[in-house]
């Protein structure tokens, strides 16, 4: 993240960085101190905007239109970084003839099946490539085409390309045509951003890109929590590839995640469809054995071709000596996916009574997940619920403290769920690592013993595993073999027999099976069972037997890249794809932006950071025809995770809703899509059920205003870590909404008084904050009001209030199943909600 | 979860947390008692004001003093002026005014004891009242006053016990009584300096006229009090003279105070509006009425004197309350502070200052 | 040890209130109740006996309405604190000697001496110190005296993520602040200026140990434009009292003499 300090222009969009990542924001302030221009594009004028040089108010959910407009600006005005685009991206690749763009099909791409609401991506491929060109990060959607399945063991050819970028079906021209109607006037009409403001942003980005200057994008859940979230990020990636900013110091795209260690939660995943290190979870009916699994998932070329080493090492770590080549390293003992087991789908099934039990560790879905009423309904249908948390959160208390119970719609006596509550240890009471948003592992040491019966999550899970192993020790059933063979022998410490966290880290790093010696990195992993590794991505974090994540060399004693502070994956690389910081000949693009470059005398890549490339591969290297694996990467292929080593402006596979980003309106919008007949994301995930009602897609007269949810600095997510602390609670004691003075006047809202916001899913009461920081926008000739709702409040804690998520419906991005949380419609009226019983946000002390 | 924690707004579990912070020792019964900033919900949407304040939030803190203090101003003034009268009488007419001197000594001593009690009552930590005498800090009117009250009280008490006796005791009493005189004047007047030595606009703005006002009012208090009881002819003359001078000075002082404070009209606002304004007018009216009654022929009659005394006493008490309340209002009014300071720097109004500020809103013109 | 202090730069503040929370946590102060004020994001209100850092939020819409939106709107953010004045009103008013000047130049109230007379409350030209009603004593920012004695910097400065609050030697801070103002002027922020950094710019307090960089008039941030420690002006009151006392003494004498002249 400190790479931001060397940016010349930082565009913060889909993020309220100063409020939600205040410590990381110091790097933006450092960049500003050095003269960088800070631009904040956000529906609200926030504390980030207060210190930015420019704030651009935008309508929620229209970021593709805005960024697409920038793409068009770059292309129309010839501002793209020619050499970079030509050599490092797939701009020159020719796409096959059957491809049809949204311009042809009024908002759809070729291959759409309206019944299944899915795309067949066969027509999106490179001309001449056989089958589907595999994408780097698409492994998790194993069952989907594009996981490398049909393209097995074939190199992707680049015969069909046009270096002049003139071929009508080359990516560059397709891109140009795709965004041709995203003019500044269209941006104004869709986003509500005045054309001159838009042009100022576009010009700032262009002016600050190229050999001598770099611009960075910063985004967070303002982009991800949309039904087209992945495409928002894709558009930014296209902009940055065109401007030549990826892989360069002060450039790139910084993804800001939502919690301190949620990056770790996806790396060593709590996600249903991933194994550690983003290895795909096997799917039932598809993989009958390790070989098929490997065939389906590996890429023939590129760094992902080494994938077999990672899965075999993982299996060795989990099953130990019992895992041998003969039994496919006990791969068959891994559970199989049967479909979409993501959070929202699971909750939907839960609400239908199809789940028995639920473990909730450090999460508060009763407040923090969309459609709160449905979440709590799901909890009521369970047989048992286990909650591990620091406080008695709303999820733990759903059976006696919930809006439905307060209203009298549900009675505690009728709920049959058995609830177990385990107090959890705080981060100061246990050893462990955070993996922060910039892929940085930072170790934290236990400072005090947890009080009473509180225990760490590690302790809980380890103990649970031991008891399960004991329970099934004598079972002969086939389904129980997994638990029985699981190696679970972490050393323990202390009277409470807590597992040593460092031992887990050592396993994650990986070791040689023969002597237990830690490996230096994932390059040392093998697929013959000689190595074991808990997560190949993290390999190197215990290199040389030293806890790399615990390193704390002060910044004054090392370079600005600070490689001796903690450990960044992969292999302590701080900037990904940094090969692109040097030109095709291996020289830095400029002295000012020198980072990693080729040292001709030593014949290696050197620089401020660990080179993200084969360290001894010269820039002049060209692969033999038919080369496979890593050998297929040329010396000018910086994007080593892709099969073709190029940055993908056009994505032949990897996304389910299009190879190029397209402006789709949010599922509930005040207005029609101005560009296409296709109103919303055609592939979005929906849950059509009576308890998840949707509004009309646009201009629903009952719900005329746009609403968005967000965070405040003072509170933390669903409130478990902040609304129980008096020092934080007093800073923001009440649930409130932010409205513009114009909306307040129109509806009759008074600053400081109460208002009720309603959707078809529910209604909430909150205080009103009338502020000019919210601005009505002119969209297609009419005024659109936006209402801001922080989502931190619930029915428990020192300060209580209604939950904003009770207003939202379950609808999600198809690629990653992340729910839409940022753009819906609603209505607002003054006064408290009906049958309130006088409850208001400023509660008397308990 | 039943974790034993303090419910005083800290939520610290005393069994695992050590309460050693500087603020940990603050005993809090209810956190909502924290300074009630005008935190009534603000209905105004922010606009750019030509005459800005921060949501009308006071810039100063209102004094935490309560009813005991204005009452003390009266009682202390009464006691002090009584000592002065007694000392003069001691020096100039000991034999003729013996009874009056004794009475005055008693008033003084009793008044000072009561004063002490009132002040102790108002302390946040009454048990520590002796700490007032830990140091002598000449910069602080309150420090000076504490010593003056203590010394004056001691002298007056000795005078009560010893003056008029024979022999050594009598001499001691005489000395004590004499010393109590100037000390009493200091006692009667320092409270004005006490108020003037604060940042409160109306008090600081009246720093030249407040002392004579208080002294005059103190004299008037004594005259009024004496008028309530039976007096010999000589005593009547003394009391009346003292009272007349006092009331005149008080009325003149009040008028001059309005002039001094009124240099910045906003600062004088509490004298014209609200409870303090009412009290101010009342005080002047009562004092004036008392003065009038004293001047009219037939003032010697008992009934007239009692009426005059009551009016005068009420007037003096009201005056202290008026000033006290005015100070509270004044501290609550941010514009009073702002305009007083803007005017002081350049003699111009706030709007006039605005135009010439340029990039630096405030430039001190004083060295 | 030299004179230490704070330099608080409003242009670096992101309004995160880490300073407020760090102060409360380190000093184990109680909360001030849970009241929604409707004043932008400021639910704290002001400094007080149990709030020693307070972040001010001022929303300033553009003076001229700009049809296009964008630009001309500012949200001023500033962390307010006890100024630890060179001539401190509270210190000079305190009759018990509870309020003292430490070796670092800060102003510190000794809670074991304070008897809650409340005089300091009225004497502070910034409205900082306050008497806590339940406890009875007066409290304010200690400049983390306990931390300073342990060679740590104050909690608020430590917590501030953007170094809007900087702690250090006062001379160094002054130099830093002056450079910062120059830098801002060069970048077009002409309204930036320093508040209370020296005796010359704030003769009434003779300079503050905790001074600020502001971008609008002091009143906007609830700071007095020209604060004066009351004891600087109290001499006039003493003089007036002295004269009046003499006159009162004369009046007493006259009254007695008048009595002597009367028939018994």
Can you summarize this structure?
The complex is a heterotrimer of chains A (846), B (367) and C (264). Chain B is mostly helical.
**What portion of residues of chain B is helical?**
55-70%
Given helix and strand content, the structural type of chain C is alpha+beta
Q: Largest interface, per-chain counts?
A: B-C, 129 and 118 residues
Mean pLDDT level of chain C: 92
Number of helices of chain B: 12
Low-confidence stretches of chain B: 347-367
Sheet-strand content of chain B, in percent, reads under 5%
The main β sheet of chain B shows up as: none
What letter string, H or E per element, gives the SSE order of chain B?
Answer: HHHHHHHHHHHH
Radius of gyration of chain B from the CA trace? Answer: 25 Å
Number of helices of chain C: 7
Strand order of the largest sheet of chain C: 8-1-10-9
Which assembly state applies to the chains in this document? heterotrimer
> In whole angstroms, how far apart are the ends of chain C?
73 Å
Cα distance spanning the termini of chain B:
62 Å
* DSSP summary, beta strand count of chain B: 0
- What is the CATH topology assignment of the largest domain in chain C? Alpha-Beta Plaits
Q: So what's the CATH class of the largest domain in chain C? A: Alpha Beta
Number of strands of chain C: 10
Unreliable runs of chain C = 63-69
Task: Describe, in plain words, how this protein is organized in 3D.
The complex is a heterotrimer of chains A (846), B (367) and C (264). In chain A, 21% of the residues lie in helices and 14% in strands. Chain A contains 22 helices and 31 strands. Chain B is mostly helical. Chain B is built from twelve helices and no strands. About 3% of the residues of chain C have low confidence. Chain C has seven helices and ten strands. Chain C has two domains: 225 residues, Alpha-Beta Plaits (2-Layer Sandwich), CATH 3.30.70; 36 residues. At the B-C interface, helix 1, helix 3, helix 4, helix 6 and helix 7 of B face helix 1, strand 2, helix 2, helix 3 and strand 6 of C.
């Amino acid at each position: 993240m400190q790479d931001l300090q060397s940016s010349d222009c930082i565009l913060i969009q889909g993020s309220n960085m100063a409020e939600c990542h205040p410590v990381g924001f110091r790097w933006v302030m450092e960049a500003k101190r050095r003269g960088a221009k800070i631009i904040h594009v956000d529906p609200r004028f926030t504390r980030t905007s207060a210190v930015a040089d420019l704030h651009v108010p935008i309508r929620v959910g229209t970021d593709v239109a805005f960024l697409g407009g920038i793409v068009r600006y770059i292309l129309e005005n010839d501002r793209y970084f020619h050499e970079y685009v030509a050599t490092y991206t797939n701009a020159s690749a020719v796409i096959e003839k059957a491809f049809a763009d949204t311009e042809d099909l009024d908002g759809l791409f070729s291959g759409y099946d309206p019944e299944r609401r899915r795309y067949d991506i066969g027509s999106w491929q490179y001309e001449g490539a056989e089958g589907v060109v595999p994408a780097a990060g698409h492994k998790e959607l194993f069952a989907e085409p594009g996981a490398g399945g049909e393209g097995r063991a074939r190199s992707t050819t680049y015969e069909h390309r046009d270096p002049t970028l003139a071929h009508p079906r080359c990516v560059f021209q397709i891109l140009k045509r795709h965004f041709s109607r995203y003019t500044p006037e269209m941006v104004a009409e869709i986003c509500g951003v005045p054309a001159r403001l838009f042009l100022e942003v576009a010009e700032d980005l262009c002016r600050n890109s190229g050999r001598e200057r770099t611009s960075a994008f910063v985004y967070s859940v303002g982009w991800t929590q949309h039904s087209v979230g992945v495409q928002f990020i894709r558009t930014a990636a296209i902009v940055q590839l065109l401007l030549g900013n990826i892989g360069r110091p002060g450039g790139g795209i910084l993804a800001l995640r939502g919690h301190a260690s949620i990056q770790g939660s996806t790396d060593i995943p709590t996600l249903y469809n991933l194994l550690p290190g983003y290895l795909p979870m096997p799917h039932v009916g598809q993989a009958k054995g390790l070989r098929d699994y490997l065939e389906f998932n590996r890429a023939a070329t590129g760094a992902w071709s080494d994938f077999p080493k990672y899965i075999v090492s993982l299996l060795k770590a989990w099953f130990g000596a019992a895992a041998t080549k003969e039994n496919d390293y006990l791969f068959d003992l891994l559970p199989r996916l049967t479909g979409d087991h993501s959070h929202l789908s699971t909750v939907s099934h839960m609400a239908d009574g199809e789940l028995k039990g639920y473990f909730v560790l450090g999460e508060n879905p009763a407040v923090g997940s969309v459609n709160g009423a449905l979440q709590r309904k799901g909890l009521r249908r369970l047989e048992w619920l286990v909650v591990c948390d620091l406080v008695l959160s709303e999820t733990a208390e759903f059976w006696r403290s919930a809006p439905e119970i307060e209203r009298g719609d549900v009675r505690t006596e009728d709920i049959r769920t058995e609830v177990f509550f385990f107090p959890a240890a705080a981060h100061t009471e246990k050893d462990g690592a955070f993996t922060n948003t910039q892929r940085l592992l930072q170790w934290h040491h236990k400072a005090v013993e947890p009080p009473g019966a509180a225990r760490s999550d590690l302790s809980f899970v380890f103990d649970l595993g031991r008891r399960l192993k004991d329970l099934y020790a004598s079972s002969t059933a086939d389904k129980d073999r997994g638990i029985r063979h699981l190696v679970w022998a972490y050393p323990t410490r202390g009277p409470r027999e807590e597992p040593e966290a460092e031992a887990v880290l050592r396993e994650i790093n990986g070791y040689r099976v023969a002597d237990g010696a830690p490996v230096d990195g994932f390059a040392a992993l093998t697929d013959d069972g000689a190595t074991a590794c808990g997560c190949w991505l993290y390999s190197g974090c215990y290199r040389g037997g030293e806890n790399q994540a615990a390193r704390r060399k002060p910044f004054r004693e090392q370079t600005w890249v600070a490689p001796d502070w903690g450990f960044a994956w992969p292999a302590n690389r701080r900037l990904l794809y940094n090969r692109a910081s040097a030109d095709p000949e291996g020289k830095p693009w400029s002295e000012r932006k020198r980072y990693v470059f080729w040292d001709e005398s030593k014949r290696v890549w050197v620089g401020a950071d660990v080179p993200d490339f084969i360290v001894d591969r010269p820039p002049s290297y060209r692969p033999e025809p038919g080369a496979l694996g890593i050998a297929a990467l040329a010396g000018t292929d910086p994007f080593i995770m892709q099969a073709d080593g190029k940055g993908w402006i056009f994505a032949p596979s990897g996304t389910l809703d299009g190879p190029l980003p397209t402006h789709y309106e949010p599922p509930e919008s005040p207005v029609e899509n101005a560009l296409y007949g296709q109103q919303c994301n055609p592939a979005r995930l929906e849950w059509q059920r009576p308890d998840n009602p949707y509004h009309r897609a646009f201009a629903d007269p009952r719900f005329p205003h746009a609403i968005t949810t967000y965070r405040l600095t003072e509170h933390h997510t669903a409130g478990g870590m902040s609304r129980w602390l008096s020092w934080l609670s007093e800073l923001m004691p009440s649930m409130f909404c932010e409205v513009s003075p114009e909306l307040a006047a129109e509806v009759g809202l008074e600053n400081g008084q109460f208002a009720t916001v309603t959707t078809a899913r529910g209604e909430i009461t909150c205080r009103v904050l009338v502020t000019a920081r919210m601005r009505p926008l002119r969209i297609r000739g009419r005024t659109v009001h936006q209402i801001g709702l922080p989502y931190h409040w619930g029915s428990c804690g020192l300060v209580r209030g209604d939950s904003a998520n009770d207003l939202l419906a379950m609808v999600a991005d198809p690629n990653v199943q992340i729910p839409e949380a940022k753009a819906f419609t609603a209505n607002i009226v003054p006064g408290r909600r009906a049958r309130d019983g006088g409850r208001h946000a400023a509660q008397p002390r308990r | 979860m039943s974790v034993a924690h303090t419910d005083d707004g800290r939520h610290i579990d005393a069994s695992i947390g050590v309460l050693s912070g500087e603020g940990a020792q603050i005993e809090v019964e209810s956190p909502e008692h924290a300074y009630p900033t005008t935190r009534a919900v603000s209905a105004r949407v922010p606009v750019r004001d030509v005459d800005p304040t921060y949501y009308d939030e006071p810039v100063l803190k209102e004094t935490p003093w309560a009813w005991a203090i204005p009452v003390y101003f009266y009682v202390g003034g009464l006691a002090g002026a009584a000592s002065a009268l007694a000392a003069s009488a001691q020096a100039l007419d000991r034999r003729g005014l013996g009874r009056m001197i004794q009475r005055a000594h008693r008033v003084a001593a009793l008044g000072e004891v009561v004063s002490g009690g009132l002040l102790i009552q108002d302390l946040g930590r009454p048990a520590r009242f002796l700490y007032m005498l830990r140091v002598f800090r000449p910069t602080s009117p309150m420090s000076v006053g504490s010593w003056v009250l203590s010394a004056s009280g001691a002298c007056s008490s000795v005078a009560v016990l010893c003056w008029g006796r024979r022999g050594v005791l009598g001499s001691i009493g005489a000395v004590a009584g004499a010393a109590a005189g100037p000390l009493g004047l200091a006692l009667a007047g320092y409270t004005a300096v006490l108020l003037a030595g604060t940042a409160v606009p109306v008090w600081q703005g009246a720093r030249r006229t407040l002392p004579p006002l208080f002294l005059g009012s103190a004299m008037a208090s004594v005259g009024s009090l004496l008028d309530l009881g039976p007096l010999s002819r000589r005593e009547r003359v003394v009391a009346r003279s003292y009272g007349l001078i006092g009331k005149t000075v008080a009325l003149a002082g009040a008028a001059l105070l309005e002039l001094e404070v009124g240099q910045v009209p906003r600062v004088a606002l509490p004298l014209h509006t609200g409870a303090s304004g009412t009290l101010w007018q009342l005080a002047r009216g009562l004092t004036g009425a008392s003065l009038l009654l004293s001047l009219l022929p037939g003032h010697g009659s008992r009934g007239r004197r009692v009426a005059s005394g009551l009016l005068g006493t009420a007037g003096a008490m009201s005056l202290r309350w008026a000033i006290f309340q005015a100070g509270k209002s004044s501290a609550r009014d941010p514009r009073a502070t702002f305009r007083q300071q803007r005017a002081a720097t350049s003699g111009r109004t706030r709007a006039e200052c605005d135009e010439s500020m340029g990039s630096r809103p405030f430039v001190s013109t004083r060295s | 040890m030299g004179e230490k202090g704070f330099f608080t730069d409003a242009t670096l503040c992101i309004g995160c209130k880490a300073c407020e929370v760090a102060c409360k946590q380190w000093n184990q102060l109680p909360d001030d109740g849970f009241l929604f004020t409707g004043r932008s994001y400021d639910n704290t209100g002001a400094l007080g006996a149990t709030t020693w850092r307070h972040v001010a939020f001022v929303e300033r819409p553009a003076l001229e309405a700009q049809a296009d939106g964008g630009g001309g709107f500012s949200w001023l953010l500033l962390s307010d604190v006890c100024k630890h004045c060179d001539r401190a009103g509270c210190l000079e008013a305190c009759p018990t000697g509870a309020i003292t000047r430490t070796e670092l130049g800060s102003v510190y109230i000794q809670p074991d001496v304070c008897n809650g007379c409340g005089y300091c409350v009225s004497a502070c030209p910034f409205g900082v110190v306050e008497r806590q009603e339940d406890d009875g004593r007066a409290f304010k920012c200690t400049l983390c005296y306990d931390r300073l004695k342990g060679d740590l910097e104050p909690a608020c400065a430590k917590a501030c993520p953007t170094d809007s609050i900087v702690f250090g030697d006062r001379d160094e801070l002054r130099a830093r602040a002056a450079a910062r103002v120059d830098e801002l002027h060069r970048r077009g922020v002409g309204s930036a200026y320093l508040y209370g950094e020296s005796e010359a710019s704030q003769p009434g307090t003779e300079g503050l140990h905790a001074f600020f960089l502001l971008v609008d008039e002091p009143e906007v941030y609830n700071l007095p434009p020209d604060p004066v420690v009351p004891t600087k002006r109290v001499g006039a009151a003493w003089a007036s009292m002295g004269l009046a006392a003499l006159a009162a003494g004369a009046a007493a004498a006259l009254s007695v003499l008048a009595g002597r002249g009367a028939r018994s």
